Amino acid sequence: MPSQGEFYQRDRERHPPAYTRDYKTSVARSPQYSAISLQNSVSEITGPVFGHNDIDPMDRDLLHNYAQPGESAIGERIILHGRVLDENARPVPNTLVEIWQANAGGRYRHKKDTYLAPIDPNFGGCGRTITDADGYYYFRTVKPGAYPWRNWVNSWRPAHIHVSVFGTGFAQRLISQVYFEGDPLIAKCPIVKTIPNQDAIDSLVALLDMNATIPLDSIAYKFDIVLRGRRSTLFENRLEGN
Amino acid sequence: MAQSLNYLKETPSQTAGPYVHIGLAPGAAGFDIYTQELGWDIAGPNAKGERIRVEGLVIDGTGSPIKDVMLEAWQANAAGVYAHPEGGGDVEEGFRGWGRVITDFATGEWGFDTVKPGRTPGRNVGTQAPHINLWIVARGINLGLNTRVYFEDEAEANAADPVLNLIEWERRRATLIAKRTERDGTPVYRFEIRIQGEDETVFFDI
């Protein structure tokens, strides 16, 4: 029997709504009817389980995971690290964390990206890892560059790393973006501004973490990820049985 | 001053963007980096039950297919068990029940092979009809969309399904029922997802 119940409902005041006029692509891609609220069944409290056999330890090192032997990616070398926690402040262990990003010049290795900044032959731009027993994760990579995109005529994305996280239930599934402390483009970005709450925006900004730097090698940024928490079943309102 | 509840707040969502494939399906982005990509085999070789294919399109408010969408599927096996510690039992070796679904970039068509899931327990009472849970992300989608695929040939189970019955507007329930055809002896279910406009698909806040 589960000792925990359903997940806490999402705080819609901290997530972007579907329709956000100033992020133009959302206009035709946003449902107009309200979503139907569903109390969690077994379909939502469960989710895929991953193990260390699914990935390679090297996958978390974007400096080298696509580089020729003896070479590494070009750019400002960073460590991105932190913990995956739930809203009860408990660590989420053994969960898959995947990231993807542009290279230091702001160019993605994708057949649909035609930005004039060059591809780095030694940089793929994706990584993945599984959190340890304390929910801890880290990646080595380069700090991505800002790049222009077609929203308004002259729109630029702040430097960012996309992050995808699972948790233990499909209801926790989340994709977001990590920004970097001090970037003046954050406040100008129509995608950032889809989030209607400044405190929530601030929670996407990774802080420079001098204590985690490797002297003479890499600077570090800390980014904790919080997934939905679960209700304790203090009183009978069971998910299973009758 | 009152006490503090000391809960953390969930990290807010941001769009997966146009280059989601780099991170989650790099082969589709055009490069080979991982020894093993995740989510391409939902059921595995040992799963019991009927082998099926599910195909469709995701269509935007202008009536055009969304060609850069990515879907994830999550389902029980043919016995109605999810591959999870709280999933209701054991599953066949190699059955994960989870998959990543990429479109053909030229047409937006997607499809995946799996086994037809069985019925699963309802939240408190009753039984859920066979269904596949979908999570949909793309450029322009600010928070992943959740919906469910039900099956046309499960009319009796669908009629008793607690989730379908939660949808107040009966005609909208039809947006969640995949149409069954056959191709080379394999059942193929067609499931078109309309993000907005006429016959907008039902999405769930789970």
UniProtKB/TrEMBL annotation, chain A:
Residues 8-24 have a biased composition (Basic and acidic residues). Residues 8-40 form the Protocatechuate 3,4-dioxygenase beta subunit N-terminal domain. Residues 1-26 are annotated as: Disordered. GO terms for molecular function: ferric iron binding; protocatechuate 3,4-dioxygenase activity. Gene3D superfamilies: Aromatic compound dioxygenase. Keywords: Dioxygenase, Oxidoreductase. One of its GO terms (biological process) is 3,4-dihydroxybenzoate catabolic process. Pfam families: Dioxygenase_C, PCDO_beta_N. InterPro entries: Intradiol_dOase_C (IPR000627), Intradiol_dOase_core (IPR015889), Intradiol_RC_Dioxygenase (IPR050770), PCDO_beta_N (IPR024756), Protocat_dOase_b (IPR012785). Residues 45-229 form the Intradiol ring-cleavage dioxygenases domain. Belongs to the intradiol ring-cleavage dioxygenase family. This is Protocatechuate 3,4-dioxygenase, beta subunit.
From TrEMBL, chain B:
GO terms for molecular function: ferric iron binding; protocatechuate 3,4-dioxygenase activity. The keyword Oxidoreductase applies. Residues 46-196 form the Intradiol ring-cleavage dioxygenases domain. SUPFAM superfamilies: Aromatic compound dioxygenase. It holds the Pfam family Dioxygenase_C. Gene3D superfamilies: Aromatic compound dioxygenase (2.60.130.10). Keywords: Dioxygenase, Oxidoreductase. The keyword Oxidoreductase applies. InterPro entries: Intradiol_dOase_C, Intradiol_dOase_core, Intradiol_RC_Dioxygenase, Protocat_dOase_a. Belongs to the intradiol ring-cleavage dioxygenase family. This is Protocatechuate 3,4-dioxygenase, alpha subunit. It comes from Antarctobacter heliothermus.
